[in-house]
Amino acid sequence: QVQLVESGGGSVQAGGSLRLSCAASRYIGSGYCMGWFRQAPGKERERIALRDNFGVKTYADSVKGRFTISLDSSSNTLYLQMDSLNPEDTAMYYCAAKSSSGSCYTSWARFQYWGQGTKVTVSS
Hints:
This protein is an all-beta fold. The protein is globular, with a radius of gyration of 13 Å. A hairpin with a 5-residue loop joins strand 5 (46-51) and strand 6 (57-59). The chain is built from no helices and 11 strands.
């Protein structure tokens, strides 16, 4: 079992930055796929950033070049640095983890462990 706790959400103006944190209750390095997801009201949950079990990072087109996922293995904390935010980034943000048995590049529904979410609001 892995418990995940997000923090760092809030309200920011367009063009601003936020850094989300996801503290894990145990080691989450190799052996786990780690991702950031978001869900806006009335929309499907989408994966926006993924760090696979080899450390390869991929991003959704909508955030590529603006968001950066990183892992601090010493503290078991996953981060999402979000720059150049725009109102379309307004959503609830979640971190999630799954065992790396099976592909990391899979539906959000296959991620076994989820944080409680942190809200991000970007105003124009």
